[in-house]
Amino acid sequence: MILLNIISLLKRLYDYDKDTYEHSVRTSNLAIRIAGGLSCSIDLVNTIKDAALLHDIGKLNIPLSILRKDTKLTGTEIKYLKRHPIYGEEILELNNFPESIITPVFQHHVWYNGMGYPKVAKKDLCFSALVISIADAIDAMSHKRPYRNALSDKGVLFELEKGRGTQFEPILTDICAYILFNKTPPTEQGMSSYGKIYSIQEYMR
Fold it and tell me: Percentages helix, strand, coil for the chain, rounded to the nearest 5?
């Protein structure tokens, strides 16, 4: 039932805005790689995969004039766009999705330090949302948008390092740098700004 609902919603998203659909698929693929790097269980990886596929489903309720605008958005347009996680939560609730998928969709623009949107206390952030958040940001930075060019791998890595501990969860940042950008993992002889690569068991303690 969930699979059929996912397929149905993704088809709607594809028909509405192909760019958002393609971004969602790429984000899901990145999230799978990140979760795999933390040795997550198959069930958790599948939950993250499904939530990442649907993380921008709320954009079905955002006008195409905003989604496809080729210049900077106005303050009013930005405020409207920032409602898409709320719309996403509403759409998934109407389609009887479990909380394990609804919650990360609602939280995927909340920063690790509690900033971002919508307002969610840092202590209430779920692990899946943290994974999807960084995967979403990496894909967005890596691809051209109407108002800016794509960043190089070096540029994306710089932004990850800049956001480590504020926008992005530190351990997930390390995992992304190591898995996605071949950043050399730290050694006992030469520790960089990165910490050790943790297993999911260590992370969830």
Answer: 65, 5, 35
Q: Average pLDDT, stretch 104-114?
A: 97
Q: How many CB atoms lie within 10 A of CB 117?
A: 16
97 phi/psi in degrees, rounded to 5: -80, 155
Q: Determine the Cα–Cα distance for residues 36 and 164; give it in Å rounded to an integer.
A: 20
Partners of residue 145 on adjacent β-strands:
148
Q: Give CA–CA dist 156/153, Å, rounded.
A: 5
DSSP 110: B
Tokens 């009887």 belong to 96
What angle in degrees, to the nearest 10, is found between the helix axes of 127-142 and 170-181?
Answer: 40
Q: Which amino acid is at 155?
A: G
Confidence of residue 36 (pLDDT cuts 50, 70, 90): confident
Residue type (1 letter), 9: L
Q: Indicate yes or no: pTM above 0.90.
A: no
Q: Which residues pair with 148 in a beta bridge?
A: 145
Give yes or no for a contact between 131 and 172, defined as CB atoms under 8 angstroms apart: yes
Instruction: Please give the mean pLDDT across all residues of the chain.
Output: 88
Assign 177 to helix, strand or coil.
Answer: helix
Closest CA to 102 of 10, 2, 202, 194: 2
